[in-house]
């Protein structure tokens, strides 16, 4: 399997007939997810059927955003055995709802809820209306199997970790095309670490929660530090917490405020850019670090490293 990062969009051609669009959707599912039996709800769709997807992946890490007309899915034990995929899937509906049944559990999912599906077991999904959803592949070796196998079909939305998980999955999708394989894997595995915490249904201590929020905040800042629109308020929203909670988490765990941590990350990234051989644009480096002028950037850089950017560059390049 290709370990490089890639992404693509796919949808049926306008010239395709309804039957061809349905067959194309079945083929797409087989390539991206596995084997299914499909039944198209002709009455609810008026006989038509449309779909589109945006998929991104690196190796066995895959995230797909899809939309489709009404359709019913059935994955049998034979399908699961034939595919040989013993992992899981996270489904995050964005618009519309669907009914999901696996084992002795059955749930209705809509925006705000998250489904956790065992992919090596039979599952039935009934979609009676147009649906837009994210579906994330969860390789078995990257989560705690002892927690994942007995996990409920619907994640516990009363836990504040759920909006954090949803935000992180949505951020993974939003950055399609900007990722490289290394960064995509880091962000993806961070999401799965958060999932592991959710699957542990023991009650976490407040301090444990702050540690998790701090780790999530740092990862968010590392991934998005070059975006000048990133502020502590934005980081808090992406972590699904208030700014006050973010401040408490970072000061307890890392003994640093959100603004100071973001500044440190950006200045450290600027220091690395200064080590690049050849001509550099100090203005661009200052702007990427979040400063409106080279003078302000130089002052902040000197406070952080006790050297000006030019002195640091001379030292780094010998």
Percent helix among the residues? 40-55%
Query: What structural category do the secondary elements indicate?
Result: alpha+beta
Strand order of the largest sheet: 1-3-4-11-6-9
Radius of gyration: 23 Å
General shape: elongated
Main β-sheet description? 6 strands, antiparallel
CATH architecture assignment name of the domain at 5-155? Sandwich
What is the number of helices?
13
State the total count of DSSP E strands: 11
Unreliably modeled segments: none
| The level-1 CATH class of the domain at 5-155 | Mainly Beta
CATH superfamily of the domain at 5-155, by name, is Jelly Rolls
Please write the string of helix (H) and strand (E) elements.
Answer: EHEHEEEHEEEEEEHHHHHHHHHH
State mean pLDDT (0 to 100 scale). 89
Q: Kindly, what is the distance between the CA atoms of the first and last residues, rounded to a whole number of angstroms?
A: 42 Å
According to CATH, the fold-level topology of the domain at 5-155 is Jelly Rolls
Strand content: 15-25%
Describe the structure.
This protein has 318 residues and is α+β, with helices and mostly antiparallel strands. It is built from 13 helices and eleven strands. The strands form two sheets. A six-stranded antiparallel β-sheet has the order 1-3-4-11-6-9, with helices on one face. It has a five-stranded antiparallel β-sheet with strand order 2-5-10-7-8. A hairpin with a 2-residue loop joins strand 7 (98-102) and strand 8 (105-109). The two termini are 42 Å apart. The model has no long low-confidence stretch (mean pLDDT 89).
């Amino acid at each position: 399997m290709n370990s490089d990062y890639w992404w693509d969009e796919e949808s049926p051609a306008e010239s395709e007939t309804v039957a061809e669009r349905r067959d194309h959707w079945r083929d797409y599912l087989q390539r991206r997810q596995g084997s299914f039996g499909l039944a198209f709800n002709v009455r609810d769709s008026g006989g038509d059927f449309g779909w589109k997807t945006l998929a991104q992946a690196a190796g066995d890490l895959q995230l797909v955003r899809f939309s489709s007309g009404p359709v019913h899915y059935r994955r049998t034990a034979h399908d699961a055995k034939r595919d040989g995929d013993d992992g899981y899937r996270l489904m995050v509906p964005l618009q519309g709802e669907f009914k999901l049944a696996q084992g002795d559990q059955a749930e209705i999912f809509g925006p705000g809820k998250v489904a956790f599906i065992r992919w090596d077991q039979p599952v039935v999904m009934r979609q009676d209306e147009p649906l837009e959803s994210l579906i994330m592949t969860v390789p078995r070796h990257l989560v705690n199997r002892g927690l994942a196998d007995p996990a409920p079909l619907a994640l516990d939305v009363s836990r504040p970790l759920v909006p954090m998980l949803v935000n992180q999955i949505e951020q993974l999708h939003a950055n399609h095309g900007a990722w490289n394989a290394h960064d995509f894997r880091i962000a993806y595995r961070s999401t799965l670490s958060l999932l592991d915490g959710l699957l542990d249904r023991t009650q976490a201590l407040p301090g444990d929660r702050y540690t998790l929020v701090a780790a999530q905040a740092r990862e968010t800042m590392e991934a998005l530090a070059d975006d000048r629109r990133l502020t502590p308020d934005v980081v808090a929203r992406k972590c699904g917490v208030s700014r006050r909670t973010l401040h408490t988490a970072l000061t307890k765990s890392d003994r640093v405020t959100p603004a100071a941590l973001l500044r440190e990350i950006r200045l450290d990234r600027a220091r690395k850019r200064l080590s690049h051989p050849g001509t550099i644009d100090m203005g661009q480096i200052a702007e990427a670090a979040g400063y409106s002028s080279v003078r302000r950037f130089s002052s902040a850089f000197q406070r952080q490293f006790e050297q000006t950017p030019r002195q640091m560059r001379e030292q780094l390049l010998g």
